[in-house]
């Protein structure tokens, strides 16, 4: 096969990961100071750029041992410097010989340089030349890499190289790469792995790729050219190109039967990607498409032509005859065409243009394979499932149908057949809408290019996608994609985009009713102690190099400086005030005691900002109790409330239990409506359980979909249930709301523990079509409000207000000015990454006085008499400020009879009147009980 410029491919996407590779939690790497395992020996990351010796980038793996090491099922993975998502994956196979090397070919920046020695593996990875993270992994699944130093101890990462300004590294990053025009590579000092990238790697001007066969290539000066003499006729090639149709070239299986063979075929150009990095175009057999019967249509009539040399010379609608070599590139069948000499334009006369195939998304890979690279007019409904990588790579995960893709453990027990069925349905309904390019809009080279899709308007999870132009069914990065027929960017007019999206945003939550409302809100590491107030902080920076948010090096987790805090704070303030809640639990707020301040300083700052926005002293916070845990996280939980609606009853309590050694300790307090009595009290317990991202031993990821640290979360749920019982006795109420970020989906073990303890998860019970979180393209609720039986009876409505998890991360304050398109707005959308949950509930009895049905107006004498026959009998009257509320025939708590609609005041007839009041009150209560 001729050596050709490989394309710059897209980094692996969240959507690709959800279909093809389960996430694996990794927190540590395996250092190899004894030289007893494979290591990354050299990383050449500028292939194809001006002055570079080789066309392709590569990673060379070294084996310092006396034994060959098989790497079947292994991978090289790459994650961009500032990314926190899953890495791109390049799969490996074969063997690294003892004391030998293994050459992994990657992408290219251009056409400069010569071919690498025959690589042992060819991947689509295209790392940055200056900054990023490369991982040698002993598995093919994408790793859930942490942010920060990755230290010794846990299998999964065999070796890791973080360089430049990468957020993931071993101890310290290796040097930042030089300009792409400077020939150099990152070289390991021997094969020893000290677990420090800075110590192990240095930039060197010599680039020395070597494969497992020992073959290496060092570019040499060709010297002065010599006269080649008179050329001779090379004669007829021994293996002439075989004429085939595109359907024959494609074949009926996952791979072409002509791989490695030189063929000639004809077709009509249906899409051109001369710019943007795909470096090719698609051709389709004339006259094909339209209505397709998948039962009989077993081979695709189109193929992707990989040819940077000729992509600029063809146009959509051209009829061409092409000669090239058939290849399979990471699952995509393609025809590699080396030069314009291999392209013959055919007469247009008589050519029947192909038309888009009109069909719904096929559910199986085999059916999709039969349409690979064909023009498609998508039929049926499509729903936005994920937009996490839209701001970086211009791609949007879609779900066929009207429903999102669902976390299996949101609706089914972990490991169950039902959960497997949900996962299978997710895979069958997933397709990614791409932008016809491999542009990384966050890279220094492309930050001046307006990001696709988001520039034209919001793309919100749950929105309907409507197609107005045909697309190409493509396969890249282990996932099926819809590509536009030419590259798009944010500069493309909205009218020229192949798809548009419905508006599903809401300016306020749904009306949940009730006398009172409470909510849970994750404030996304709200830290008034900004990074610039501390020493040692490192930062994520915008495209001008200005710090935006803290990356590491100190205890702060939020904004870098006051300007960044203001951008974060205005979103949070607008969102909380728009909730309409009377009590709000806050998660991920700064524990100011960690910075030598009053523990409540941060929550006080937020309350002040909330009140400034309302223009009055609306909000207050529940002060920290006198007794605090000996050890707390840098983030904490807090309770705030509206002062004219409720007030806390007594001091709050923090649960100091060993189960929460790796999480935030719950905080509880009871509240009483203003003007209410003890019968109206309700208990609120705020929670933030251990996350899913890390754990070992009993907390290791069990592979059942619940992630790491499930055992800890189960213990925390058990301790919480016991704590609730204790607090109910303490405060004298059985109406309990436990809310917050439980880091568990609705059918996972911790939620079952609480369900078995008698609590009802209000989200699934009352608002089952909305979810609080989106991860890896799957929607589910990590955030919950659980109600005791008594509280449940009072609930009038629940709404998960989708303002955060459904919006692009590019809208966050922490992504400000990363691209020339400024996506930030000072509104409620993407104030956090979790959605708030709002619950409405009635008081034990209706405190709103209305006329009774059997009383006499209160005039200083006898209070109104009781009502009759209610299912919920009223309580005896007491002649004071809060008269009894006897039952009414409508089945609701009775209201005292006072013809003027106001509660009767206490009588003034002395002792006898008091006795009469009590007797009448008891009589009313008995009548309510027994009719």
Overview of this protein structure:
- This protein has 931 residues and is α+β, with helices and mostly antiparallel strands.
- The chain has 14 helices and 51 strands.
- The strands form 13 sheets. Strands 22-27-28-33-34-31-30-29 form an eight-stranded mixed beta sheet.
- Helix 8 crosses helix 9.
- The longest helix is centred in the last third of the chain and has 22 residues.
- It is globular and about 95 Å long.
Features:
alpha+beta; 931 residues; six-stranded mixed β-sheet; eight-stranded mixed β-sheet; 14 helices; 15% helix; globular; 51 strands
Q: What's the structural blueprint in terms of helices and strands?
A:
Elements: H1 14-20, E1 24-25, E2 28-29, E3 39-44, E4 58-62, E5 69-70, E6 75-80, E7 88-91, E8 95-96, E9 101-105, E10 121-122, E11 132-137, E12 143-144, E13 148-149, E14 151-152, E15 157-163, E16 168-169, E17 185-188, H2 197-200, E18 201-204, E19 242-243, H3 246-250, E20 262-273, E21 280-284, E22 289-290, E23 302-306, E24 319-329, E25 332-336, E26 343-345, E27 355-359, H4 365-369, E28 375-378, E29 382-386, H5 390-393, E30 396-400, H6 408-411, H7 417-429, E31 430-433, E32 465-467, E33 471-476, E34 479-483, E35 499-501, E36 516-526, E37 538-541, E38 547-552, H8 562-579, E39 583-590, H9 601-614, E40 619-621, E41 635-642, E42 646-654, E43 664-673, E44 682-688, H10 710-731, E45 736-741, H11 749-756, E46 760-761, H12 762-766, E47 773-775, E48 778-780, E49 783-787, H13 789-794, E50 795-800, E51 837-841, H14 911-930
Parallel strand pairs: 1-12, 2-14, 9-10, 13-16, 19-20, 22-27, 23-25, 27-28, 31-34, 36-39, 44-45
Antiparallel strand pairs: 3-4, 3-17, 4-9, 5-8, 6-7, 6-11, 11-15, 17-18, 20-21, 20-24, 21-23, 24-25, 24-26, 28-33, 29-30, 30-31, 32-35, 33-34, 36-51, 37-38, 39-41, 40-41, 42-43, 43-44, 45-49, 46-49, 47-48, 50-51
Helix pairs in contact: 8-9, 10-11
């Amino acid at each position: 096969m001729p050596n050709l410029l490989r394309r710059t491919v897209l980094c692996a996407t969240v959507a690709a990961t959800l279909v093809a590779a389960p996430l694996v939690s990794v927190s540590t790497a395996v250092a190899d100071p004894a030289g007893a395992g494979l290591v990354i020996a050299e990383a050449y990351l500028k292939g194809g750029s001006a002055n570079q010796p080789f066309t392709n980038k590569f990673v060379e793996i070294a084996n310092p041992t006396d034994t060959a090491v098989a790497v079947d099922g292994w991978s090289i993975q790459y994650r961009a410097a500032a990314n926190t998502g899953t890495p791109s994956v390049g799969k490996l196979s074969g063997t690294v010989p003892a004391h030998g090397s293994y050459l992994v070919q990657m992408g290219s920046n251009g056409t400069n340089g010569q071919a690498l020695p025959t690589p042992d593996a060819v991947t689509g990875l295209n790392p940055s030349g200056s900054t990023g993270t490369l991982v040698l992994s002993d598995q093919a699944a994408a790793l859930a890499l942490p942010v920060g130093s990755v230290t010794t101890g846990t299998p999964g990462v065999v070796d890791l190289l973080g360089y430049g300004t990468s957020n993931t590294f071993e101890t310290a990053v290796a040097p930042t790469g030089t300009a792409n025009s400077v020939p150099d590579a990152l070289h390991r000092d021997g094969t020893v792995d000290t677990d420090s990238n800075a110590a192990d790697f240095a930039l060197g001007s010599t680039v020395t790729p070597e494969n497992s066969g020992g073959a290496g290539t060092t570019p040499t000066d060709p010297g002065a050219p010599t006269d080649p003499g008179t050329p001779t006729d090379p004669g007829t090639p021994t293996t002439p190109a075989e004429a085939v149709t595109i359907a024959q070239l494609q074949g009926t299986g996952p791979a072409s039967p002509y791989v490695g063979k030189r063929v000639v075929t004809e077709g009509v150009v249906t899409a051109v990607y001369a710019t943007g990095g795909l470096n090719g175009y698609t051709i389709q057999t004339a006259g094909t498409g339209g209505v397709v019967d998948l039962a009989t249509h077993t081979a695709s009539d189109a193929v992707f032509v990989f040819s940077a040399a000729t992509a600029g010379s063809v146009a959509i609608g051209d009829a061409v005859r092409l000669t090239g070599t058939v290849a399979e590139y990471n699952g995509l069948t393609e025809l590699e065409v080396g030069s314009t000499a291999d392209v013959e334009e055919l007469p247009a006369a008589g050519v029947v243009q192909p038309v888009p195939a009109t069909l719904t998304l096929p559910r199986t890979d085999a059916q999709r394979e039969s349409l690979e690279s064909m023009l498609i007019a998508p039929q049926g409904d499509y729903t936005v499932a994920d937009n996490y990588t839209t701001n970086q790579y211009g791609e949007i995960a879609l779900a066929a149908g009207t429903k999102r893709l669902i976390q299996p453990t949101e609706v089914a027990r972990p490991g169950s057949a039902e959960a497997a069925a949900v996962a299978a349905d997710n895979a069958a309904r997933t397709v990614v809408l791409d932008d016809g390019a491999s542009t990384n809009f966050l890279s220094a080279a492309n930050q001046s290019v307006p990001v696709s899709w988001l520039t034209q308007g919001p793309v919100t999870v749950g929105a309907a996608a409507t197609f107005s132009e045909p697309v190409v069914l493509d396969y890249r990065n282990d996932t099926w994609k819809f590509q536009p027929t030419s590259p798009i960017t944010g500069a493309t007019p909205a009218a020229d985009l192949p798809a548009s999206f419905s508006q599903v945003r809401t300016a306020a939550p749904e009306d949940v009713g009730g006398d009172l409302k409470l909510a849970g809100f994750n404030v996304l590491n709200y830290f008034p102690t900004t990074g610039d107030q501390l020493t040692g902080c490192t930062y994520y920076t915008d495209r001008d190099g200005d710090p935006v948010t803290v990356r590491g090096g100190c205890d702060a987790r939020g904004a870098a400086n006051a300007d960044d805090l203001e951008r974060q704070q205005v979103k949070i303030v607008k969102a909380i005030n728009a909730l309409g809640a009377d009590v709000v639990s806050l998660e991920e707020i700064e524990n100011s005691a960690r910075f030598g301040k009053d523990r409540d300083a941060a929550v006080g700052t937020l309350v002040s900002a909330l009140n400034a926005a309302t223009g009055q002293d609306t909000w207050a916070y529940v002060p920290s109790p006198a007794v605090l845990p000996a050890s707390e996280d840098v983030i904490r939980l807090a309770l705030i409330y509206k002062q004219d609606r409720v007030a806390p009853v007594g001091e709050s309590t923090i649960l100091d239990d060993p189960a929460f050694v790796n999480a935030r300790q719950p905080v509880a307090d009871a509240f009483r409506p203003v003007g209410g009595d003890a019968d109206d009290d309700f208990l609120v317990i705020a929670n933030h359980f251990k996350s899913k991202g890390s754990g070992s031993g009993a907390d290791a990821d069990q592979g059942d979909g619940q992630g790491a640290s499930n055992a800890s979360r189960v213990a925390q749920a058990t301790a919480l249930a016991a704590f609730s019982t204790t607090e109910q006795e303490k405060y004298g109420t059985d109406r309990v709301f436990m809310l917050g970020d439980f880091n568990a989906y609705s059918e996972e073990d911790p939620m079952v523990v609480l369900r078995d303890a008698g609590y009802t998860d209000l989200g699934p019970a009352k608002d089952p079509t909305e979810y609080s979180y989106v991860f890896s393209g799957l929607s589910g609720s990590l955030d919950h409000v659980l109600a005791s039986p008594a509280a449940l009876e009072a609930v009038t409505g629940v709404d998960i207000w989708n303002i955060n998890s459904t919006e692009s991360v590019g809208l966050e304050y922490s992504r400000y000015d990363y691209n020339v398109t400024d996506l930030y707005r000072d509104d409620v959308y993407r104030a956090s990454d979790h959605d708030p949950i709002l619950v409405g509930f009635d008081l034990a009895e209706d405190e709103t006085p209305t006329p009774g049905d059997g009383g006499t107006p209160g005039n200083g004498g006898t209070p109104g008499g009781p009502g009759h026959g209610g299912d919920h009998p009223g309580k005896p009257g007491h002649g004071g400020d809060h008269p009894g509320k006897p039952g009414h025939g409508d089945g609701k708590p009775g209201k005292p009879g006072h013809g003027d609609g106001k509660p009767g005041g206490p009588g003034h007839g002395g002792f006898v009147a008091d006795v009469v009041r009590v007797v009448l009150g008891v009589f009313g209560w008995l009548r309510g009980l027994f009719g």
